[in-house]
Amino acid sequence: xxxxxxPERVARKREQIIVEAARLFAAQSYERTSVSDIARGLGxxxxxxxxxxxxxxxxxxxxxxxxxxVAQELIVRHIHAEKPVPAILDILGELAKDASxxxxxxxxxxxxxxxxxxxxxxxxxxxxxxxxTQGLATLINGGIARGEIDSGLDPIETARWLQAIVDGAYLNxxxxxxxxxxxxxxxxxxxxxVVGGRTxx
Length: 201
What we know:
Elements (H helix, E strand, L loop, with lengths): L6 H22 L6 H8 L3 H7 L3 H10 L1 H12 L5 H13 L7 H12 L3 H27 L9 H17 L8 H12 L10
């Protein structure tokens, strides 16, 4: 009789492996981190890791695969907000909340290094970014219609620019500093209607 698989137990074990792998990848790079390093950190065998993740590349991708459902839930939670600007600021705050983690910069750097070598990773990152872009753009359109956001802004390009600000916060992350309030302040000023129209063209 085949042994029954407990989905919750599998999910917990996968998450434990992903968290430890992310910590080591951020601290000592993808290339310098072996599967045996990850196994040693968890007190398990390499075979156990390969049971859950077929390759080291797959394990690295799994770190970022978690972002897609989180992004989808975040947008669904805010997309129908009556007041678009606070909703946009809340989304940006959620996206940036982990930037105070000391390992944040290392993980982003490793992503940039790996993304050029792994087409599947590119797809995962692009899917997540697209969910956020479309969600923010919808809210920006709503804010423009209400007269609360500068009508001279292109919603899609503005959404991408706001994400770039969040990305920058991760690249400049430092322990003990949360960039959330600064990001919210920057975004609020950028989105605000400009009296007399924009003159930067």
